[in-house]
Write a structure and sequence with these properties.
The chain is about 25% helix and about 20% strand. By secondary structure, the protein is α+β, with helices and mostly antiparallel strands. The strands form three sheets. Strands 2-1-4-5 form a four-stranded antiparallel β-sheet, with no helix packed on it. The longest helix has 17 residues.
């Protein structure tokens, strides 16, 4: 595996931060997002916490992206909103599936080396409003980037009670992962171990979004990890 920074991004402007706070505040009312909390802030200042943003979700300027293709050699295109850009990175992962299902990957200590170039006005000219990534080579060894041997499960949006929830990719992903956890258990692992293996090795793929009402998500397990 090639390590990569789970977190990479720039600072938002005061105006963008205000818009994010407003929209996430509406989500927080229904429990769908975590609002800022002085109890977990550094420094623990109510005013700062009230204006700050949680670092869990990624946003327009990047942040906690957890995209495993951002290995050495990748070019990360980040729209600049704040004076000086204020770049930051960290949270380097040794291995992670395209899902990080249980909330963590294989974390590691690291030193990250980056080079910068400024394409002034390019994001505005091209209408780029979020992170883009480019590279000219495999992000990992080919046998890892496109495994020769794998086992895949699929999920579509039907609940355990049998309700068909049209075009719900979240439910389809959940069902694909539950099926994968059950499969890994047949290989001699307990349920918690299977869940962790999904997080660090299983890739979730959106296989199709045209066959309404049942979009399909595939969970792909590279079998060479067991060798």
């Amino acid at each position: 595996y090639n390590p990569f920074p789970g977190t990479i991004g720039l600072a938002p402007s005061a105006e963008l931060r205000g818009r994010i706070t407003e929209r996430e505040g509406r989500l927080a009312e229904s429990g769908a997002a975590l609002p800022p909390d002085a109890g977990g802030a550094v420094p623990a200042d109510t005013r700062i916490a009230g204006e700050g943003l949680r670092t869990i979700p990624p946003r327009e300027t990047g942040g906690n992206l957890d995209i495993k293709q951002m290995t050495p050699g990748a070019s990360i295109l980040l729209p600049v909103y704040a004076e000086g850009a204020l770049f930051s990175t960290g949270d380097v992962h040794y291995a992670q599936g395209d899902c990080e299902a249980c909330g963590t990957a294989i974390e590691m200590r690291s030193a990250v080396h980056v080079t910068f170039s400024l394409k002034k006005g390019e994001a505005e000219r091209q209408g780029i409003k979020s992170v883009q990534i480019a590279r000219d080579d495999y992000f990992a060894a080919p046998q890892l980037a496109a495994p020769r041997r794998f086992h895949a499960t699929t999920g579509f949006p039907v609940t355990e009670e049998g309700e068909n929830v049209a075009n719900d990719l979240t439910l389809a992903a959940k069902n694909a992962l539950l099926a994968m956890i059950a499969h890994i258990e047949t290989r001699g692992y307990d349920r918690q171990q299977a869940y962790a293996i999904c997080s660090v090795a299983v890739d979730l793929r959106i296989s199709q979004v045209v066959d309404v009402p049942n979009f399909i998500v595939t969970a792909l397990l590279p079998l060479d990890i067991f060798m």
